[in-house]
Amino acid sequence: MKRILFLFMAVLVVATSCAQKGKVTAASAFIDNGDLAAAEERINDALEHDKTKAWPRTYIVAANLATEQFKQGAGTPKIIEAADHYFKAAELDQQGDEKGRGIGRAAKEIKVALTFFMPEFQNAGIEAFNADDFENALAVFERVINLNKLPLYEEDNLPVDSVFVYYSGLAANRSQQFDKAEKYFEETIELGFAEGDAILLMHELYVEKGDSSKMASNLRRGFELYPDDDRILTTLINHYLSTEQNEEALNYLNAALEKDPTNASFYNARGVLFDLSKEYEKAEAEYKKALEYREDYFEPTLNLGVIYYNRAAEEMNAANDLSDNRAYEAARKKAEETFRQSMPFMERAHELRPDDVMVLETLKNLYYRFEMTDKYNEVDSILKGLE
Question: Which of 127, 9, 143 is nearest to 82 (CA)?
Fold first, then answer.
């Protein structure tokens, strides 16, 4: 009698297990037939029942359901949920049953399912990114990277997906998750993907974080890796200029000009360095050299006008300190000539940037000084229009 009872109980356990697994099979069939509500009811039961909540196939079907719900407009979080079901399926497949048997039995089924899932999943992340939904985009991109690292792909030796590492950095940065952004940009640089863009994005990240301690080292690394990328060198020089590390900036500028001796930007930057150190004659020569290679370059044009204007103002102040009338007149005339040297550069700067207030104010003072009434009135009218 006991033997019959035990046999009955064993049959009952098997029958219960089969019934629960039957719900998973039924859910899959309902998905195929487009009845997602019926599929959801059955898969939710299977996800909670002891007999099926540790079965990898339960999560494969749950992932399939979530994917179909996403396609029906359920939103990006739903397809993220699908990815998480695949992670769970893979995790359970690596554990086997309660006795550790059957490890890897579902690997092939999971891989086949992921083959169809991944393009849909990647596109969902790209669509979220393009819609400025950066948090969900990041959630997708990170899972794309980690799905490819699952143990079931170990023999395939899949390379790191550089594109999604890069876009994870972008999405993290734009959602202000700066630590994650730094991690992914660092990995992007190590992978050699996006080249100079990755270096410059890392720099922008440090600017955003206010982390000046890492800026120079990142840019120096970028210059070493991509010496032909003028953007990196220019950013590095500007960083040194803005932090008043003039000697370092000059060293990089000299190296840059040896490599690219016709680059007007480098001559202008070197002019700024000499300007800051009050070596005005050297600055003047650099600005003029910049204009030889780019006639419509606003910055050195303006800077030359400023050099002559400030020099003239100093000369006029010195003249006013003279008590001897003859010496005063000679010094005054010299200052007037220097003011006139400033004028064509300021006029050219005005042509290049008609609404620049500093240029207009300087021209107004020059025209007043030389009693050029018509031009004075013209500039005065422009300034009033800008108020």
Answer: 143
**What CATH code is carried by the domain that includes residue 145?**
1.25.40
- Determine the residue type at 162: S
Nearest alpha carbon to residue 308 among 348, 267, 256, 262: 348
Question: For residue 161, how many other CB atoms are within 10 A of its CB?
Answer: 19
In-domain check, residue 122? yes
Read off the tokens for 228. Answer: 């032909």
Structure tokens given for 238: 């500007």
Q: Is residue 24 assigned to a domain?
A: yes
Torsion of CA 228, 232, 237, 240, to 10 degrees: -140
Contacts of 120 (CB under 8 A, 6+ apart): 67, 70, 71, 79
Beta carbons of 128 and 140 less than 8 angstroms apart: yes
| Number of C-beta neighbours around residue 329 at 10 A | 12
> What does pTM read for this prediction?
0.71
Residue 52: phi and psi, rounded to 5, are: -130, -10
Token pair of 113 as six digits: 């399912």
Number of compact structural domains in the chain: 1
Note whether 332 and 318 are within 8 A (CB). Answer: no
**Residue 132 tokens, joined:** 């400025």
Integer CA distances (angstroms), 218 to 54, 204, 207, 222, in order: 47, 11, 12, 6
pLDDT in tens, 27-61: 899 999 999 999 999 999 999 988 888 899 999 99
Q: Give the pLDDT confidence of 115-164 residue by residue, as tens digits.
A: 999 999 999 999 999 999 999 999 999 999 999 999 999 888 888 899 99
